[in-house]
Amino acid sequence: xxxxxxxxxxVPKEPGPQLGIMETAxxxxxxxxxxxxxxxxxxxxxxxxxxxxxxxxxxxxxxxFAIVVGNVVTLTVFMQTRHSRTPQGYLKxxxxFAxxxxxxxxxxxxxxxxxxxxxxxTPPLWYQGISTASLEGGSGPWQPCMLIGPxxxxxxxxxxxxxxxMTVERSVAILRPLHKDTLVTRHRTLFLIVLSWAGxxxxxxxxxxxxxxFTLEYNECSRMCNYxxxxxxxxxxxxxxxxLLFPAFDFSLLGGTLAVxxxxxxxxxxxxxxxxxxxxxxxGTDAGVGGCPHRPSFxxxxxxxxxxxxTFAFTASFxxxxxxxxxxxxxxxxxxxxxxxxxxxxxxxxxxxIIYSVRDHRFRKGLTLLFQRDxxxxxxxxx
Length: 383
Known about the structure:
Elements: E1 27-29, E2 36-38, H1 45-48, H2 50-80, H3 87-120, H4 132-135, H5 145-175, H6 180-183, H7 186-204, H8 206-210, E3 214-219, E4 224-229, H9 245-280, H10 298-329, H11 335-347, H12 351-359, H13 361-376
Helix pairs in contact: 2-3, 2-12, 2-13, 3-5, 3-7, 5-7, 5-9, 5-10, 9-10, 10-11, 10-12
């Protein structure tokens, strides 16, 4: 999971404007000494130079604009069209809202931090993760990553759980079409959505609630707020395995989503094959299709395929993070790769609206009606 990045604290020995961007060394906090030990900086000139930061900011701004605009349009279409007020529509609204929060809070904070570093060439007080005052027992500056980090992790967990719920909802429509309206109701769907959001953000806060060995800081490699362990003498804390909750949750839901998709697509394939044989006259007229006289509708089948594409897109964007976490386990840092891994996953927040636009005819119809509504209202002429 993206929250499993084991970052290193950066603590300035002497705070002051004389510390430039590339001159600030990462240091490890030691509880026994109460001071940092200078280590080699993780961020090199090739990934933290002025040109690289400028290109990164341009990419972040474009991504934030695409995420916010795309998901605002998605939410507007689903909220103002009656045919979208279904359990599946509510799940799509939940997914779009989680994606929009990434574009409204997470990405703009990274943009602000990178611009601050380029303009002032001096890291902000909270950038180092922990201040000298807090090391000496005082009250350090408030760390914005304590808000941004859980939002990023929580929204990712919401996306995974929502895609899983969408897959289950479509599988019921495919495998049990007679029981779809009975099993999948609006009230149950709304309850599961609330449960998904509450559970996802509780899980995102688990390392901070269950242990005192973790904090959140802005990482100069990924250019995002990541969970970071408090290193004791260059050693990870004994309860560092708490972070394994994140990949365990991610892979469990992704595996369950894949299994449900396989069941649905197997049923669709069997139904399509029997429908083809029936059209050719190879089967009797009373043989049924797909083993059930009440076959799934074409819209249910297409919606299941669309959700399958959503699952594939999320899995593809999540895979680099999985590789990165595996590299951390065996001791690799991969500073440059961490930027691509984290931001590929972030880019997934603007992919869903693209998939809807291509695959969902109801969404395209609602989008057309939305933009034609203003044109259809004539303005009164003044006499």
